[in-house]
Amino acid sequence: MLKIKTKTVFKRRSLPIRMAVTFFLLMSALLGQSVLSADNARGISSRDACVFSGISDARILIPIFADDSTSSSVCGMIYNGLTKVDKDLKVVGDLAESWDISGDGLSITFHLRKNIKWHDGTPFTSGDVEFTYERILDPSSACPYVSSYSDIIDIETVDDHTIRFLYRQPYAPALLKFGMGIIPEHLFKNETDIKRSEYARKPVGTGPYRFSSWKSAEYIALEANEDYFEHVPFIKRYVYRIVPDQSVQFLELLSGNIDSMDLNPYQYIYRSETPEFLERIEKYKYLAHSYTYIGYNQKDPLFSDRRVRQALSYALDKKEIIRTVLLGLGEICTGPFLPGTPYYENDAESYDHDLVKASILLREAGWYDVDDDGILEKDGQEFRLKIVTNQGNQVREDTATIVQSQWAKLGIKAEVQVIAWSAFLDQFIDKKNFQAVILGWTIPVDPDIYAVWHTSSSVSGGLNFISYSNKDVDLLIEEGRREMDPEKRAGIYREIHRRMAEDAPYTFLFSPYATPCVQKRFKGIEPALAGIGYDLIDWYVPEDEVKYKF
Question: How far apart are CA 223 and CA 271, in angstroms?
């Protein structure tokens, strides 16, 4: 078993004085004077701020193009969709207060809320909804989510507050897909390329928070929308702070300079049990709706033989990865669905650790160590490859180290490259310029996986960046979208799971536990199936605990 020395991997670093001074000046400007408010009357304050820290900056703040986690999260606070999911992951209305579905499932009519305004004061109407979905469906937009709406054949604006979508065929996940954020027609209608619009960095939405400012690689600041239709958020300001190093994030958390972060496993188990932490900070744990994987570029000849991909999967000890990297905070997964759901095939090939089987598969594929140098060869070519992953995610970096070591036992020489997030996406993922990649996907509430796994999604800008293609799986994915019977639909996805496991386009590694933490002055946090951030507008700080004054 490979042992990672935690004192090296999770090395404590001193925060440079210059960084501390810069942060103090930054927060002073953004959040106003920090005060002790013991003299305030008890009650719910609407004056405080929440500073959340993440490892990467956003790329674009237009929801129909936001395909990274930071952009999507920030857009979720600025914009609304027609629908959303509640704490139990059930579909409820957002900008739509109700809807009607025709008996044949070929049309959905949404009745929109009245008196909703964009953050600039312009009334929200059905025209904005029509404009948004026309932009998504426009091929020149190259929207990464277009596959979720490709069965829409017409959009009818009945009046300012009623809109109807007509479908080519029934589409089971339709209501969930209408959670896409709506963008303002009046600001984008004259833009030839809305991705290059000034509003990509200065967004205007209808959501609970208004955009305030964005300093690249440092922070994004939002302010409460005083006209929000549900109610004005109790937290006056929200700041997303970019801190690429989780060790520095943790020091900032302890110093009180940030209010919330996602703990890595070492921090959750070993660093968060001190009196200093427990007195001021609350931590949470629940199985995340996500999975981590190794993806193999199907355009690389090295991975064209699925026996090679299968061997790479058999060579890995997932249990050791979970024990060593996650410190037990994860569950093995074997496919793109959440374990324990009706779509997850428990009998799919799990690729339990088996070096003998891995070696046999590689020999069948023509790989031998012909010169006894410890490296496999085929047709004079050594089995060498590069694993790329993003900087700032310690779990992925440590996983790459273990994968490198375990593959070496088979005679495979792997080099690990850790790349800064922006360059990682721009130079490697977007251009499909990689061999093997360690990344993760969020698992959506609906099992429709068209956008990531269908062959048509492997086009430039698509989410199928490993270029996986299987005609039978494509047909099943399409069938799963049309099937309206829940039990039959679940069976289709279990079959997809089984077939994808056989193909091994990914080595599915694990579903981790989410381990967020929040400063204890924040109240109203109710953990649920949706996590802890679904009800952010209901978080509040008692008057006598307010930190920032406006």
Answer: 32
